[in-house]
Design a protein that fits this description.
The chain is about 55% helix and about 5% strand. With about 290 residues, the protein is mostly helical.
């Protein structure tokens, strides 16, 4: 099958970090199993993980190796004890793949492909960007999250810096600071409520079905799990994933590859996402049973 660029980008994200975090050596091993003959050079000369994966996917796009790549990525043997998570990855990917006329199917331990029928969009309440931006979150305080005092002090300093960057019209800085701050906040909340996060159906697990330690969780994992246990609502979950995508452009090669040039509007969205997340995490804490 031959995939359009947007589907390839989603596939790249699934390979690089969503299904599991793959380091440079792991990516080389992954694609060498598909016919490549690369060597990871620890001394330098290896491109960014995003650039390397983009190059490999572009090369095998439209060949039988692409089918093998997808089967390898979703191989059920790698998801023992977490098949629900595997099915979610497949369902997310199928939303993109449908525009290429294909669909991934899992039948027990077998991954197959079939022609996609009519595209059916999930019927959810649409979260409009303008409505989200107009919401007021004036009564937010990092102190109310109950995180470690040192982390809270550091986050407050970051907040002041974000405001300065907004006034200075430095959107990229706003995006990076907002994304990393959100990840730090969610890590702090997860550390405070480990039982709820670890027992969530969306918590990332290793090959033995054991929940991964928090330092191996991605921002995507934290967002989905916070939503699953009810402390982030659908609107903030949606826009938090957008912030996560923007934050990944901290890698210059990724920014060049995607032709991403953020403006002040993008920066305002990211800042609003961070404030909204803090508001919901503060007000929805009673939903988490300690």
């Amino acid at each position: 099958m031959k995939l359009q660029q947007k589907t390839l980008e989603k596939l790249r994200n699934l390979i690089n970090e969503e299904t599991e975090y793959r380091s440079g050596p792991k990516l080389v091993d992954f694609f060498n199993d598909l016919g490549a003959n690369d060597t990871y050079n620890r001394g330098g000369g290896f491109p960014s993980r995003w650039m390397y994966t983009d190059e490999k996917l572009s090369k095998i796009n439209g060949t039988p190796e692409l089918d093998k790549c997808i089967r390898k990525l979703f191989a059920p043997v790698n998801f023992i004890g977490r098949f629900a998570e595997l099915d979610k990855f497949i369902a997310d990917f199928n939303q993109y793949l449908a525009f290429d006329g294909w669909q991934v199917l899992r039948k027990e331990t077998e991954i197959t492909f079939t022609k996609a029928g009519k595209i059916k969009f999930e019927e959810k309440i649409e979260v409009k960007e303008d409505d989200f931006l107009q919401k007021e979150f004036s009564d937010i305080s990092l102190n109310k999250l109950g995180l470690d005092s040192i982390i809270t002090e550091t986050l407050n300093i970051r907040f002041d810096e974000i405001k300065k960057c907004l006034n200075a019209k430095a959107p990229m800085s706003v995006i990076f600071l907002s994304g990393s701050s959100l990840e730090g906040i969610l890590l702090g909340i997860a550390s405070k409520y480990p039982r709820e996060f670890n027992q969530s159906r969306t918590s990332p697990k290793d090959q033995n079905g054991k929940v991964k330690p928090y330092h191996e969780w991605t921002l995507s994992n934290f967002i989905d799990t916070a939503h699953d246990i009810g402390i982030l609502k659908e609107d903030v979950k949606k826009f938090s994933h957008s912030l996560r995508d923007f934050r990944n452009y901290i890698h210059p090669y990724e920014q060049v590859s995607s032709r991403f040039n953020p403006d002040e509007h993008t920066a305002r969205i990211c800042w609003q996402v961070l404030k909204a997340a803090i508001y919901q995490l503060t007000n929805n804490k009673p939903n988490v049973q300690v």
